[in-house]
Amino acid sequence: MISDFRRKFKSSCRIYLSIFIKHDYFYISINTYFMALSISILCLGFWILSKDNALLSTKVRLLFYLSLAGLVISSSIQTESVAGIFLALAISCTTLAAVGFVLDMLNNNKFSQVIILILAVLGSYYISESTYNKQDLSQQNLIPDTKGEILLEIDRNHFSSIQEYANKENAVLTRAFRPFSEDLTNLDDYYTLDVQNSINPEGLLSDLGRLEGVKWIEYNEIIPFELPKSTEVYKSENRGLSNDPSVVMQWHLSFLEMEKYYPLFSKNQITPKKTAKLYILDTGIDSGHEDLQIRRNSQKDKQGHGTHCAGVASAITNNSIGVASMSPGKDWIDVQGIQVIGDVGFGSQKTIIEGIIQAADEGADVISMSLGGITNQEREKAYNDAVKYANNKGAIVVVAAGNANLDGKRYSPANAENVITVTSINEKVEKSGFSNHVQNLKMGISAPGERILSTTPSNTYTSFNGTSMATPQVAGLVAVIKAIRPELDTKSIYSILSRTGKETQNTIRTGKLIQPYKAIQLTLSE
User: Fold this and answer.
1) Gap between the Cα atoms of 252 and 241, Å rounded
2) Cross-strand partners of 193
3) What's CA 366's distance to the chain center, in Å?
4) Three-state secondary-structure class, residue 523
């Protein structure tokens, strides 16, 4: 693990360097398309090389045909559109034809043919990265925060020796988190390490891995944030849903059959056992917005993203102002914002975890995070520990899958343990082209994420696209469920969402589409 960390630290150093020399540094990943294309090239090559041996040539030819089938399957897996599949297959066929032609031209030179095969496999690596998901890391969150690049989990019985070593190396060791209930977590054992003034940071990291008492090392990664671009509003026939004037522009509400959902509460006189506390970890919330009920009245939001998410989840329904939401009335959800993304547009892993801890310590029932980014590791332990702490204090954590059309397993905190991860679907019940998928995550669910109208600062209303917009729909519904049955944990609530959910065009990749009316019915019946 430590040697892997050193390798990743070197790559981050190259990213820092690339910023200064204006050279793009790209993330390289081996994907199934690369494997399938490489196997096809090798099978083709061995078929040509073995053509003088009839028996062997027949067997290799069969393997080549099978590899072509694998190539088609891998192209389908890694590409969302039919056009993309045909593009990938066209590139593959062209590559194979070119390799076959060159090998045939070198018929009497076995050594040259082998060299060509090796070069072709290496070339297929470049082709696969050019075809799929090439990510410019200078725009991603793979750069650690300069205020404390490293997160360490340590055994505090060895704190003195670790502190002494840090001082010797001119590195600054600072306690990272201060959870209120330290008996429920080991988050109080995390420290940040600022190595900016260290003469030999790579050597320092190598030594840390050997120091007694250092239990875990990971980056304190920067989480970049890009405000979604506003989109045109999608008008629908929502006139009977509520008396909110802009409900006619909230297509996702009728799409989710909210005409059944809202009357369910009034007709059956359903009241909450408690007002659920929903915390939006984001850019803040404009607490003065006319269509939001914020009990903490000093919150601000310069970016507007957090205010939008708050409105999707809990704008006051049936108040003859603005829009409607997942909340059936003002007594159901108490929404609060914690700013974890700065006014200039980014936060860090540490600030997000601090937000989770704060929300949990303040009694959150639901924590909604429409944020995240590609990560160096499949999972960061600190995120897992933070979510576990929130769970132990009774909170359900709902997280956006991300907007890069990638595997959500590569995104944090979407890939954290025991979170509900939300994808975006469109009005055709298809995965939105931008949405990450969740087929490799345990608790994926979907909600509409395109042209979602909601509250924005200064009593305005804007339509955005993104898994950020789908996430608070799920978080708001979860908050209503928690208001009815406060004792339910994450797995129980996910079971309700999944059992009542609707199949999409590709449920494996999106998770089921939430059905609020059916979810509340099941919550009441069990």
Assistant:
1) 12
2) 150, 173
3) 18
4) helix
| Residue range 54-108, pLDDT digits in tens | 788 788 888 888 888 887 877 665 555 565 667 777 877 888 888 888 887 887 7
For the ranges 63-77, 157-171, 347-361, 407-421, which has the lowest average pLDDT? 63-77
User: How deeply is 308 buried, as exposed, middle or buried, from its count of CB atoms within 10 A (0-12, 13-18, 19+)?
Assistant: buried
Angstrom distances, CA of residue 410 to CA of 64, 116, 407, 414 = 32, 34, 6, 8
Question: Looking at the whole model, is its pTM more than 0.85?
Answer: no
Active site residues: 282, 305, 468
Residue 464's SS3 state is: strand
Q: State how far the Cα of 17 lies from the Cα of 84, in Å rounded to an integer.
A: 34
Return the HEC string of 304-347.
CHHHHHHHHHHCCCCCCCCCCCCCCCCCCEEEEEEECCCCCCEE
Q: Specify the pairing of strand 214-219 against strand 190-194.
A: unpaired
Which residues, 6+ apart, have CB-to-CB distance to 438 below 8 Å?
A: 401, 408, 414, 421, 423, 444, 509, 510, 511
Beta-strand pair 396-400/366-369: parallel
Q: How far from 83 is each of 40, 90, 429, CA to CA, in Å?
A: 22, 10, 19
Are residues 371 and 341 in contact, defined by beta-carbon separation less than 8 angstroms?
yes
Cα 200 to the chain's mean position, in Å?
34
Reading the block at residue 388, the tokens are 């576990």
In the chain, how many H helices and how many E strands? Answer: 16, 17
Query: Which are the contacts of 460, defined by CB distance < 8 A and separation ≥ 6?
Result: none
